[in-house]
Design brief:
alpha/beta, 6-stranded antiparallel sheet, single chain, 5-stranded parallel sheet
Length: about 1000
Amino acid sequence: MKIKDLHVYGYGKLENQRFLEMGQLQVFFGENESGKSTIMSFIHSLLFGFPTKVQNVRRYEPKLHAKYGGRLTLITKKDGEVIIERVKGKATGDVKITFQDGRTGGEEELNEILHGMDKNYYQSIFSFDLQGLQGLSSLSEGDMSKYLLSAGLIGNDRLLEAETKLQKEMDFRFKPSGQKPLLNVKIKELKELEKQVKAAEVEQQSYTVLCQDEIELNSQLASCLEQIQEMERKLVESSSFLRIKPLFEERREIEARLNDIGDMNFPSDGLRRLEQLQAVEVPLNAQLAALNEKVRQIERDLMQNESGSFLREHKEKVEFAIEQGALLDKLELDIRKVEHEIQAEAKKIERIKQDLFWDAADQDISKLDTSTFMKEKIKRAEREKHHLHQNENLLDEKYSRQKVGLDTTEARMKELKAKLMPSEKRNELEAIVNKRQDSNFDEVKRQFLDEQISELEDQLDSRKKRQDHRKRFHLLTGGLIVLICVIAIGSFVKGQSLGGFILLSAAIVLAVSRFLSKGDDSLVGQSAQLEQAKRKRAALDRVDKSHGDMSAEAMERLINQDDDLQKQLDHEMFKYKEREDAFESTIQEYAAWEERKAQLQEAVNAIMTSWGFPHPGSDVNLESTFDELVKWKEAVERKNEYIETHRLLKADFHSISDALFDYALQIGKEPSTWREAILTLKKEVQLLAEQTAKLVQWKQVLRDLMSEKESLMLEKDYLEKEKAQLFTKAEVDSEEAYREKAILADERIMLQKQWELLNIQLEQADMPPERIQTFSEQGISVYSVENLEQRRKDLVKEKTVLLENQADTRYKIKQLEANGVYEELLHRFHEAKTAFNEEAKEWAKLALAKGLLNKTLHRYKRERLPKVIVEAEQHLVFLTNGRYQRIILEPKGEGLRVERSDGLNFEAEEVSRGTAEQIYVSLRLALADHTFAEDPFPLIIDDSFVNFDAKRTKRMLELLNKVSQRRQVLFFTCHEHNLHHFEGNDVIHLSKQVLTPK
């Protein structure tokens, strides 16, 4: 069962709102007061009636005078699509049911559609909200298990409430060992009164006899009164029968005549209908005769004008050949285009040959290996070539940097050595200092500086000569390198790759030797040292002139300066050793680079040789050459395809043109071109069309006449069928028999009307038909009434005598009661017993209700609950992500337990409140699945999971998606974070604008 759409006429604040094409899972989202609760109440009211004014339930009557009520469309398995409309009327509203086949109905049909379900039953099984989950939080631990069991049985806690209320009421009235309950107190009072009555009874034996006489008189008097009433009833009925007896006899005579005529099947107003059919049939036959004559005339004309010819027999083929003229034009154009493409591809191939300086055959190019493997191989070779080029630059830069460092260190060493004092001079200076010969110190220093200046001047002249020689060498080697490069380029252009590589290698060797033979920068340093020594010599002369002889301290300073220079020289020698090792490593890297370059050249030559390239070499760009070869191969393939296309186009062209020439020869024409053949055929086809047009016109007239004839025949057949139907209904086979039966039918109708009138009069007599029949058979007459009246008078006299005896007996009893306490005790005893019986009856009713409730619960536990628990277990496993596996019924059937995945069992009171809520939801969903499973009712859920955390809410909404595959689910929520769990078309967004009247 599914709610397809809703139309709210007026309900609460909703007015003229439609919710169409509702799906299996339909979500209503909106803020507070957006109409969610109103829509839920609207669905309940349309299905089960509006709340009455005496009920403590909101009626949602519209405030703006809109029509109270609405309509919903329900899809059921039995009745299909059913429209339920309920508007304001009687207490619960006036309902109208419209079925798919056009039938209509009311409350009785709606009750049948809903399988007798009322609103409370529906809400307890198929509609639940937050209130059910909040009920768990208000329960004590002892009632939690019973509450969940009740939810699994009937969907809510009313079972628990009913059982508790019944037990409380029973305990209030009676307990087996109680003292204060009402029945326990009354039993004590009755026992005490009974003892007192028995004591007084001995004194009142005669009282009992009188009471028995009174009872007997009362019985006789009651019997007499009943007989009097029976006599009076019979008198009234007999009098009534005598009044309607003539009508009854007349009706019996009419029934006898109707039985003589018997049942008759005759159409209503049959005679007039027969005469109308005969009036239409006569002119119709005349019209058919005239049409048949016209048809025969046109058919003769068609036979005379139709004759065979080649064009008539092959008209479609000829017209198709004519239509191929446009195709021939296109084929000629395509042939020219293909020829142009063949020429273009040939030009591309020729241009590639010129670019590669290689004139190879097309079939050889088609066999070249241009696979992805070859392409990757070429890319690796080019990457290796690029990498070698980069390494060459890096090695050159590294070589230059290390060479400069090595030369600089060497020059620094030479400079420091030049600054050091000769060992003889140092020894002599130290001896002078030791002997403190101050007088000779200045002279020694002067001699030392003179010798140093002389030595530096000699070194400077030698270096200037070497520098001039080196400059001339650089100019010579530079010119030689340029000349070798020009000759190498010429060798490559002429195809002499090997000679070119040899010359390039020689140029590289010269360039390296030129670089290694560069001069150093020590010449500038030596010039500076010479100037410094001269300045010191001049300063010494100035000192000699101004201060006289050098002191011993000055000589010590010279010795200390010489020690510092010696340390610097040692440090520079260590640096020179390290840089010399690094330079040797660079030379080895140059050798490895040369070896890799030779391997690359060998791989490149192998690729070029496999292609059959005429002039392989390392300077060829393999990737660009490979791309050109791929283009060449593709151009050859395209050229071959165009040649094949050209052949096919030529074949199609000749096939069509040959057909045109053949058709022209068949009609006696000999055109020179295919275009002339088309024009000739067109003229002949046009002449044939003009001749055929006349035939078509005659055939159209013939078709119109045949259509009119067919229409008239259908009309004639219809008249014949109508007459046959009249005869069939009347069960006759001739017109005469039909007319005779019409007379009997009229008589029967008249008698039937008289019988109905008499029947109405007899029904107004207020006497059952069977009673009238009985009186008629008994032969009731005026004498029978008189005998009944006499019998009534005799019974009245007997009644008078019995009343007098009754009054006398009661007087005697009153006298005995006035003389003692027996009557008072007896009265008190009977009053107490009556009160006790009343209370006992109330207790018995409660006990019976509790017994029936327990019996019903036992049957539910035995039949329905096991199935509900099995399905609830599946829901619980899904909701708890497998943490809890089973739901177990207590052995005594008083509650539920759950089994965790590790096998431990817990009572419902022992699990967390969140788990208890998940058990409750699982039981409710399972109970709904096993209630009216053959046509499941929609589930209505109103924000029942607001207390769930994000993970529980996600799994709960996933479970609702699964449930919606078996039954419709209407989910109402005001929480926007729930919406991303649903498809967009499953959500209806409600807003406060929805409540605004349209």
